[in-house]
Amino acid sequence: MIKVHIDLNLCQSHGECVAIAPDLFQLDENDFISWQEEVDDSRRADLEAAVNTCPMTAIRIEG
Ligand code: SF4
Fold first, then answer.
1. What is the pLDDT of residues 6-59, one digit of tens each?
2. Number of domains in the chain
3. Domain that holds residue 22
4. Which of the four pLDDT bands, split at 50, 70 and 90, describes residue 3?
5. How far is the CA of 42 from the centre of ligand 1 (A)?
6. Atom 4 (ligand 1): residue with closest C-alpha?
7. Which amino acid residue places its CA nearest to atom 3 of ligand 1?
8. SS3 label, residue 14
9. How far is the CA of 26 from the centre of ligand 1 (A)?
10. How far is CA 61 from CA 25, 29, 31, 43, in A?
11. How far, in Å, CA of 60 to CA of 29, rounded?
């Protein structure tokens, strides 16, 4: 499993991660990000794309 962290001090709710993997990242009605914190290895490419696309470099993956 891959652990996913988002630095909430950095995230500005741009939503690029949501566009890439809406099943893993969600913005609520107040534009507050939530996400799946443990993700199967099969989704590594989507996670790496989200990490690389986040304009605030707020997403970090581990494992
Ligand atoms: S792409 Fe980055 S800044 Fe935008 S919602 Fe996702 S974590 Fe936040």
1. 999 999 998 999 999 999 999 999 999 999 999 999 999 999 999 999 999 999
2. 1
3. 2-62
4. very high
5. 21
6. 14
7. 11
8. coil
9. 10
10. 13, 25, 22, 12
11. 24
